[in-house]
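Collaborator request, handled under Task 6.
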Amino acid sequence: MRETASSERSRPVSSVRRKLAIASWSAPKEGNIYGTLRMDATQAQRYIAHLRETTGSRVSITHLVGKAVGLGLAKASGLNGRILWGRYIPHQTVAAAFLVSTEDGRNLAKVKIEGLDQVSCREICETLRAGASRLHKGEDEEFNKSQGPIKLLPSWLLRPVVWLTGWITGSLGFGARPLGLEAYPFGAAVITSVGMLGLDEGFVPPTPFARVPIYILIGAIRDQPMAIDGELCIRPQLTLTATLDHRFVDGFQAATLTRGVRHLLTHPWELDGLDAPPWESTASEAEGVKPD
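Structure tokens returned to the collaborator:
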């Protein structure tokens, strides 16, 4: 029995993802802000249904949240950037990384979207689907190249290597394609979801080598009671959580970003530059009334 317990304790790390986690994190010591945002998802779900029907794309709440974050970063001068030599330096474009589970959940990869504030929700959907497909098929060359050193190096040596690599790519902005290294590989935000896993909410732990100011986690949409105009009713509610680097943002700025994201997700047609719900225009045309 003792030998079994001893062998369990000394068992090597079983996945690249877990090995990278051990090499990346130490005891918590950084200053972060954690926030939770809950909102009525009725209009978001209706807009998703509209996009699926009219475009044929499998748009989901992840794509709407991604676009809302992209528009928020475009307006948040203190978030869309990096810290180098103790100075804040803004990015020239808005980019974010969406996490993708691979190897039956044993590993994580990312799909980065540039110009996140400029593309449509449908385009985000198609880009992520294509990127996830390459990862699942093992056809993402950059990701495959980056996994080699992680698999070979022991965790104690991997820690400084990962830190240095993150500093070179995420702070200095240097990439090395032959090694699978991309400049600013995570952009200014990391977006992931646990809603598909059935979890209502959670918080993303900051990843040191990612060097981004904000992490967004998308929870499950649940039917819950809420008060509307003083009356109790049941509505689908979406829970978002954010982990923010306090070096970039304070509570007031975080609240400003939160209000913008809430407005966009409760008026989701504005994500694609529409002034009114598209189903209202369709109804007006069906009645023979030209929309304004």
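The cover message to the collaborator said: "Confidence is low (pLDDT under 50) at residues 1-11. Strands lie at 32-40, 81-84, 87-90, 95-102, 107-114, 189-193, 214-228, 231-245. Please let us know whether this matches your experimental observations."
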